[in-house]
Design a protein that fits this description.
- By secondary structure, the chain is mainly alpha-helical.
- It is 68% helix and 0% strand.
- It is built from 17 helices and no strands.
- α4 packs parallel to α14 and α11 packs across α12.
- The radius of gyration is 21 Å and the shape is globular.
């Protein structure tokens, strides 16, 4: 623990003073204004704490809005274990503690994302504070919502980015544990396990699957074998219902989701039932697998290495599940990458990058109001903005490569 604290301290001392100060001020402004306006409800966190209490009592966790919960719980039964320590405190104290934890991990996400981006280049590259601050400002509306509702997307993004850092390569079991925790919260992160399997990272993958099995089996301690099966069936049904709010049924929820993007042309060719039941998701998975293999197999003659494939996955994963704005926190490394190589980009690539950033960070509820915010969301600005950055990523990682920016 002391070694971990020392490493974090060293990282924070490496030109991050301004970023630390900005994050503290940003987080403080959120909790102060929310408290003054009586909006410090931490809606999502309340559902996690209530689920943890039900878990200890051996009750059903899903499709319930009771107790302190304001929204239904939708993660795995095992994920609720992580919130049991908050039951030691009153709800008001727990909300403050979780907010501080969440804000601290957002800061660590910024630090780990910066460290990851530096590993994408074959040569040493420096990230100036202005590069990092630009990425933070693009994601500021999403970060605000994440901290305001008390969600876990920032925490999960930190786990994923940390698992992808090369300094943990000799401790692949640790990477597998981090990835396992993320998947037990949101199953679409399993795409990263597929990538590591393709790269033959056997220890990581083995640890990951052992962890998943442990996570599924652990609730038997309080529910028994059949009760555990029933509990996980309820989790599956809650995920289906959650996704049905957008991508799987209505197909009118916007284009933030890759399923919804592909639904437009497929809807013209195939009956809805056939598309939803088999061909539609299979088509998406085949395209995704092809992109992963293509990027993972490439050798780069330019200044980039094959870790670009992980950067690509961090951009594509937020578009795999039923999408809300907070999922796009995981594009933090992608944004940092483009701020790092900004001076090496051509005018067209710069224009596409700026447009992508505007689409991701420009839909601000307080600026546009509820009607226009919903309009832009339904139009799919987050998904389209991320897609533009991904297209740029494939372009700049081509045979001609890019010039490594000067360290600053």
């Amino acid at each position: 623990m002391r070694r971990f604290y020392r490493r974090v301290s060293d990282l924070l001392r490496q030109d991050y003073n301004g970023i630390v100060l900005f994050t503290i001020l940003f987080s403080s402004a959120i909790i102060i204004t929310d408290t003054i306006n009586h909006r410090f409800s931490q809606t999502d966190f309340r559902s996690y704490v209530q689920a943890a209490e039900w878990l200890l009592q051996g009750e059903n966790l899903y499709s319930r809005i009771e107790g302190v919960a304001k929204v239904p719980y939708k993660y795995s039964p095992f994920a609720a274990f992580f919130f049991t320590p908050f039951l030691l405190f009153s709800l008001e104290v727990s909300k403050v503690l979780y907010f501080v934890l969440n804000a601290s991990i957002v800061l660590l996400l910024i630090v780990s994302s910066s460290a990851f981006v530096k590993t994408v280049f074959k040569e040493k590259v420096g990230l100036a504070q202005k590069n990092i601050l630009t990425a933070i400002l693009v994601l500021a509306p999403i970060l605000y919502r994440e901290l305001h509702v008390g969600n876990v997307n920032g925490i999960l993004a930190f786990l994923i980015v940390t698992a992808c850092l090369p300094r943990t390569r000799k401790r692949e079991s640790f990477q597998g544990v981090l990835l396992c925790i993320a998947v037990l919260f949101k199953p679409h992160y399993v795409v990263f396990a597929g990538y590591f399997l393709f790269r033959k990272r056997w220890r990581l993958v083995t640890t990951f699957f052992i962890g998943i099995l442990t996570g599924f089996a652990a609730p038997m301690w309080g529910y028994g074998f059949r009760g555990n099966i029933t509990l996980h069936r309820a989790w599956y049904q809650s995920m289906v219902a959650h996704n049905a709010e957008g991508s799987w049924v209505s197909m009118t929820y916007g284009m933030n989701n890759i399923f919804e993007v592909l639904s437009r042309p497929l809807n013209l060719l195939l009956p809805d039932k056939m598309m939803h039941s088999a061909l539609y998701p299979i088509t998406v998975l085949v395209l995704l697998a092809g992109a992963i293999v293509y990027l993972a197999e490439r050798t780069y003659d330019g200044p980039l290495n094959n870790r670009v494939s992980l950067l690509f996955l961090m951009g594509i994963v937020p578009m795999l599940g039923q999408v809300d704005t907070n999922h796009f926190i995981l594009v933090m490394p992608l944004l940092l990458f483009f701020t790092a190589i900004w001076r090496a980009l051509g005018s067209t690539t710069r224009a596409v990058t700026v447009l992508g950033m505007i689409l991701i960070g420009g839909n601000i509820y307080e600026v546009w109001g509820k009607g226009m915010f919903s309009f832009w969301y339904d139009l799919g600005v987050y998904g389209m903005g991320t897609a533009l950055l991904l297209v740029n990523l494939v372009h700049v990682s081509g045979d001609n490569g890019v010039r490594v920016p000067e360290s600053s």
